[in-house]
Amino acid sequence: MQTLNVELGERSYPIYIGSGLLDQAELLAPYIAGNSTITVSNETIAPLYMQQLQMNLSGLKNCQVVLPDGEHHKTLDVLNQIYTGMLENGSDRRSTLIALGGGVVGDMGGFAAASYQRGINFIQVPTTLLSMVDSSVGGKTGVNHPLGKNMIGAFHQPQCVVIDTDTLSTLNDRELSAGLAEVIKYGLIRDTEFLGWLTENMSQLMRRDPEALAYAIYRSCQHKAEVVADDEREQGQRALLNLGHTFGHAIESGMGYGNWLHGEAVAAGTVMAAELSQKMGWLQLDEVAEIKRLLAAANLPIDPPTSLSPAEYLGYMSRDKKVQDGVMNLVLLKSMGEAVLTKDYDTDALKAVLERM
C-alpha cells in the first residue's frame, strides 16, 4: 500500500492506494467518529462490492442507499434519495457517509454529506480509474443541471480516500479509457516526464498491467494532492486541472449527459484546446499530433461531435464555472507540460477551431 496526504491543515487527509484495501477495516475505522454510517453506491457497483465493504463496518449502524447508474442521474431529484435514506435511518451530525462507486456516486455522496444537517463527514471509496485519479480527491462535490455540468455543489473534503486497485478488474474498457484521459491531463499540464512515461507504457495500461496502473494512479493523485493543497477552492492553479474541460463539458451538456463519458468529452476537448494553443503560437503542429496520438492510443475520441454548432458550443461554454464577470476563461497549453488559464485568447482563432470541428 502507498499513502499520500492532501495537506490542508486541520482538514488534511490521507489517500491510500493498493490492492485488497476493501478488506482492511483498520483503514476506515479511524475516520468514523460516531456509531452510524451511510453507504451510497449505485446499482452496478453495489452488487459487486457493497457486501465486502459492509464487513468492515460490523458493530456500526449502517444504512445503504443504492442509486441508479449513469451521469444522466446526477440530478437534484436523485440526490434527494440520499437525504431520504439518511432521514429514514436517523442519521445525525456524527454519522459518516461512505461513497462507494465512480465519479457520479462520489460527487453526489459528497454533496449530500456537505449539505445534510449543514455538513457531516464522508469517506471516498472510488471504483473507477477516473474517480481514483481525479474526482475522489479535492473535495469538489455536486450535481448537474440541464444547462450546465456540476453547476450546483460545494467544496467539502473527505476524511480519507481509499483506492482499492482490485476494483478495476470489473471496470469495462470504455470506462478505463475515460479514466486515462484524466491521467494524460496531468502529463500535459505539469509533468513532461510522466507524459513520456505514458507514451511508452500506454499499451501496458490498456492491458491493465497492475504495476503500470498503480504507478499511473499514484503519480496522478500526487499531482492532484499538490494542486489542491496549494489552491483548495480553485482561485488560481487548480483551474489548470480543467484542461479540455470547458470544451468537454459543452459536449456532455449538448449531447445529453451520459451519451459521452466525461473522459471521452475531456479527450476531445483537450484536442480542441491544443489546436487553439497552436493557433495562438504556443504549440507546434507536431505537438498537437503527439497529443492526438496519445489519446488515440488510449482508445479515446480525438474529434468532437459534429452535431453541435459553434454557436451551441459557445452557449454552453459561456456557462462554465471559469466564467468571471461575463468573461470566459480557457485553460490552454503554453507548451507541453505548461498550462495557463487565460482570457486573452484570440476569439477568431477559437471560432476557427469550433468551425473546423
Show unreliable segments: none
CATH class identity of the largest domain: Mainly Alpha
**What is the name of the CATH topology of the largest domain?**
Dehydroquinate synthase-like, alpha domain
What number of structural domains do the residues give? Answer: 2
β content, as a range? 15-25%
Any idea what the radius of gyration is?
A: 20 Å
Sequence of strands across the biggest β-sheet:
4-3-5-6
Give a written overview of the molecule.
With 357 residues, this protein is an alpha/beta fold. It has 2 domains: 2-170, 3-Layer(aba) Sandwich (Rossmann fold); 173-356, Dehydroquinate synthase-like - alpha domain (Dehydroquinate synthase-like, alpha domain, Up-down Bundle). 45% of the residues lie in helices and 18% in strands. It is built from 13 helices and 11 strands. Strands 4-3-5-6 form a 4-stranded parallel β-sheet, with helices on both faces. Strands 1-2-9 form a 3-stranded mixed β-sheet, with helices on one face. A two-stranded antiparallel ribbon has the order 7-8. β5 (96-101), α4 (103-115) and β6 (121-126) form a beta-alpha-beta unit. α3 (76-88) crosses α4. The longest helix has 21 residues, at 210-230. The model has no long low-confidence stretch (mean pLDDT 95).
